[in-house]
Queue: 4 jobs
Job 1
Amino acid sequence: MILVTGASGTVGRPLVELLVAAGLKVRAVARNPAGLPRIVEVVDKPVLEGVTGLFANPRAIGADLVGAAKEHGVRRVVALSAANVDDDLDRQPSRWRGDRNREVERAVTASGLDWVALRPWTFAANSFGLWAEQIRRGDEVRGSYAKATWSPIHERDIAEVAVRAFLDDNLLGMRPVLTGPESLTQEQMVRTIGDAIGRELNYVEAPPDLARQAMVAQGLPAEFAARLLAMQARSVGVPAPVTNEVRRILGRPALTFARWAADNAYVFGERP
């Protein structure tokens, strides 16, 4: 049985579906189990009895669960980490939203269990928190650093790589850095979402202070907003890293941001 923590999240939900499709038994730790396959055992906190594989989401668990997993007979852990996990902590914005990538990855790699640490670059789903509400209201998106670059990865690609990490041994002891297939600016990403929903969207560059205030007004932590903007500033005019790991592992190209936007058009107010 595979225990999936963070099972209602953007990676956990497709991971659960893919594991079930592969014929594996799944126990899902989920705050919002709606839409998960009925065959899945849903729990509200990690239950390790009978578990042989653990998907460790660093926003959903602490490093202590990894030690407990070994004591309960878990044999393999696949950790969701991040491409910037080795950077200074003040250059890791997601820490201010609860991620403990470094602590969980270190616990996993030191556990004595079979392990794989997935290090994705920017999630395409970050677009939800930054732009979805604005796009639902109109055709103008205000944000900072229009030329800041990401190589956004479709969360399904992360989930498919995680399934591969559970099913075979080829990735054991590895930390693959997972990216989308292209470097895109913020304004290019917004235009791509517009194409997916049948609207012409315009990215309007705002001063960083105003962008930070807008993010905080949307409920994002102030420290997260400040560090995200600093990261964007450093990437202006610098192509985002693009790796070939998804193709190497899955035998197909990474899914494009255009595909992600089409898959999630309903969130942004798809034109009827």
Job 2
Amino acid sequence: MLSEITKLVRGTDALKRVELLCEPGRALVHDSISLFCRVILRKGEALYCGAGIYSGLSPARQCFLLPARAWRGGQPIQTEEWQDFIIFGPTCDSMDRLGFSYSLPRDLSEGDWIEFQNVGAYTDMARFNGFSVDKIVAVGQDELTMLPAAIQ
């Protein structure tokens, strides 16, 4: 990963002149965690979800367009009809809005789930007015283990 970043920086005139800081933790564990959140409300092109900037999705505020897919009935939603959505968290704070729109199935509705992939090490770092990750599920090669949210 670092060699790809180095090639990009060295090959871009604008980036050659800036100091580049890299946090190794994010690079090492970016793909280690998915965060699932339920769609609480849909209003046109706006989705209000059970997770937001203050509850696991802080990297999505300005920095990252996280890979995302939608789930219904325990299965990924298969569709050919997509729509761009603006996603808000549950806090009623005006800053609890993801920084990018997400292309998700057009028929996404309340009760469906969104999986944000590659959220990495910062999924459970923030707690805001009681909002935090409910459960952490560790998936091994041969097992699925439910862990209390306090165990990390």
Job 3
Amino acid sequence: MSIIRIGRVELRVLELEKSVDYYTNIIGLEEVAREKGKVYLKAWDEFDHHSVILQEAESAGIDHLAFKVENVDDLAKYETNAEMFGCTVKRVSKGTRIGEGEAVRIEIPTGHQVELYHDIVQLGTKVGTLNPKPWPFDTKGIAPHRFDHCLLTGDDVKTVTRFFTEALDLHQSERIMTVDGEDMVGSFMHARNGKAHDLAFVKGPDKKLHHAAFFVDNWYDVLRAADRLSAYEVPIEVTPTRHGITRGETIYFFDPSGNRNEAFAGGYIAYHDSPTITWTEDKIGTGIFYHRRELIESFGKALT
């Protein structure tokens, strides 16, 4: 029984067509399907039908995120674990969304909705599986390899971390503790996939999205992303820099609805038996922005 990886995010956007234009031409995702009020997208290096769903709504933010499990039987096991933890759980029928099989939907301790699924249609990647080229030659925009992770906010970071590590068997790669060690204000977790993080939480209001991140190959691609974002006059919050936490390279910016996006590269390999790295709250500036060593005000307040 295991969770493989984070698999998709459904974002609420204010103007659907304006958002589709942004996510296809500036981010560089491919539109694969539509239904009333929703558009399904995938990155060029993803096999599954979609990883991002845009939902037209009156307010921006996140509808849900979802993790892919190794076997269909894992759904029942994790469903039981979540119920025993005290979470509200329900089944999502096959075909509720295009290309998706049955899922388990969980309201986690921070009020966010998280789904677990196994079955999803595979469309394949742009380069295929037979003697593939290293990348396609017809990409647009930033052209990330994949949807990579989400950072969410919640009031009780310690309890939501317990849920993911105890009920869903994620591993905590890093954490941010108050200086006295009494409370946890940040948590970074991953499935059994070697990534530094699939999901993170920082202390803040419940049910909020901090950012949705897309993986690019290297530091040069982060710089190239910055050039493209500036050319399209996309609001950039943080210009290219490095994280202390995860060691990844990053740039932060906003979609037309105000949802924060990240282009993320690098990061170390995190094993399930690796010890958890601890940062203290007085060093959070260095942990988040290693070069400037301090947070900027909008980074904690611009939430959707």
Job 4
Amino acid sequence: MAPRPAGRIAAVLIAALLGGAALADRAAEPFGDATRGADLYSQCTGCHQVGAGAENAIGPHLNDLFGRRAAALDGFRYSDGLQRMGADGLIWTRETLDAYIENPRALVSRTRMAYRGMEDAGDRADLLAYLRDFSASPADIPEAEPTAIAREVDLPPEVLAISGDAAYGEYLSAECTTCHRRDGASDGIPSITNWPEDYFVIAMHAYKQKIRPHPVMQMMAARLSDEEIAALAAYFGQID
């Protein structure tokens, strides 16, 4: 079987954040170079403003981003995808922002953010260190989620190397298509038709790891083996 591309995606490597009591016992830890992050932020300035006088533009302003619920900023019209994720409980922390910046459409389907993603983990850490400086004194709040580095769980490399069986995925797909339409129409429920296989696998493992907050999808993903997720990705990726 041919190996699948094994690009590292943070969304499938991060465990759920520790509880508040545990976080209070941990010192705030720097996670990037904010000075270098200021240079990397030039990739964002076409859509987002940050700092004194920042306003909503093509994208929402990024002041006080850490700890904020997704799609919660007053005065900005968010995509349906981000509104849904916010309603499901997605909070912008270091971990969730890292996953979103790496591959926006893998974490939030139907996002309007037309950014392909930042592949390098060090670049993302520096950019987030810069953005964190515009949230309310995060370094002085050790118990705050954005300043605590959560433990990670490794997704075994062999999981990323699985080549899915599309025929098996078609057999498994009946449960998916009780909500998701095969023809790709959304009708309020996001399309999963013709997604790149990597995006599908990333999304399902994000639900399985409880990075994505939707409780029904978390339950569905938890019942699937790694091979079944790969098979579904192969099937939905090639539907005519």
